[in-house]
Structure formats: structure tokens, C-alpha cells
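> @MW can you paste both from yesterday?
MW: sure, first one:
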Amino acid sequence: MEESKRLYRSKNGMIAGVCAGIADYFGWDPTFVRIGYILLSIFTVFSGVIAYLILWMVIPKQPIG
């Protein structure tokens, strides 16, 4: 039986691993997720920063191993 996928903050992240964790979960390139996040933050008058901080607190760290 296949194990279900879980969303974790990546150890390979630039700040907190949120964008890299989302990219890992969906199988995307982390660079494109980061660019998308920056554009979203700019065009929504930086409300993306609040969303990032919330995700940082909510998404668990990737377990060791």
C-alpha cells in the first residue's frame, strides 16, 4: 500500500523552507514557486508575507531520515 504524501517544510529552503516544501509536494521546481510567491506578494500589496509567516508556523519541519 502506498504511503500518503505529506506537506513538510524543506530542509533545502532559502528562508524557512515553505516554498521549497510546496514545490517538493507538487513535484515542481522550487525556483518557479519562489518567483510565483514574490509576484503574488507584490501584486497583493505584500499580504503574501503574512501568508508565508502563517505557513511557516503551520507546516511542520521535514522529519530527519
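MW: second:
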Amino acid sequence: MVGDVNLLVILLAALAASLSPGPASLAIAGTSMARGRNSGLLLTAGIMVGSLAWSIAAALGLGAIMLANAWVFEIIRYAGAGYLL
């Protein structure tokens, strides 16, 4: 089933979606103006990594697994929080 998924198309769609304006664009602009270019670039990198991680998870069907089993979502959520700490 994974062989039927065109991962390159999904990654390109995720890139296009992350480049479109939205709340993340406002956060990046605000952070860049308030704290400088490096902080804005770090925020951009974090947003891109998060967006691509969720896109790949959805492409591999993890979204359906997390909907069916709430404990899987909780494990991923706490793992992400632990990583951020």
C-alpha cells in the first residue's frame, strides 16, 4: 500500500502549502522584526519541519491510526513536547 503513494507529490504539495500566507507568515514576520533575521529563520525552520512531519505522517496513514487510537496521538504529543524541552 505504501508503494502506491507518490511521496514526491505529497512533499511538493506540503512545500506549497507551507509557503502560502497564513498565521505562520505573520509569526515569522513579527519575530523577524522584533528579534532579527536569525530568530525569524529559526522559526521558519521549525514551522517547515513540523509541517513536513505531519504531511509525511498523513501520507503514511498515521493520521487514521491516531484517530482510531487516541493513545498513539498522546504518545506522539508527549514525545514532541519532550523534544522541545
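> thanks! The radius of gyration is 15 Å.
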